[in-house]
Design goal:
single chain; mainly alpha
């Protein structure tokens, strides 16, 4: 539990930890889909699944943050199972983003210019 003065900084930290990784992962997926479509190629189902996972993660984590903010008025900030779920989803989104960076770089190294 956090004090009343520490609720907003703690909430902003949770928002950054829970929303930024899936947003970055979604941005990378959309950039990749755009680059494939510009070249006339069809995006893979895995890429579309990664983008859908990122959108779902943003929605779930936003819901967890809204419930957290709603309950913060009851005397402080209490972390629970929803926060663990949000953290796990954000962590998976982070690794999706890392995988996209690695796969994009690997394919670019083999390209002929």
């Amino acid at each position: 539990m956090a004090s009343a003065q520490g609720v907003w900084p703690a909430f902003l930290l949770l928002a950054a930890l829970f929303v930024v990784p899936p947003a970055v992962s979604l941005g990378a997926a959309l950039r990749r889909v755009g680059s494939l479509r510009r070249r006339g190629l069809q995006p893979s189902p895995w890429l579309q699944a990664g983008a859908a996972f990122s959108v779902a993660t943003i929605a779930i984590n936003t819901l967890v943050l809204a419930v957290t903010l709603w309950r913060a008025g009851d005397g402080g900030l209490t972390l629970g199972r929803g926060h663990v779920l949000a953290a796990v989803l954000a962590w998976v989104s982070f690794w999706i983003w890392i995988a996209m960076l690695i796969f994009l770089r690997r394919r670019r190294q083999h390209a002929t210019y």
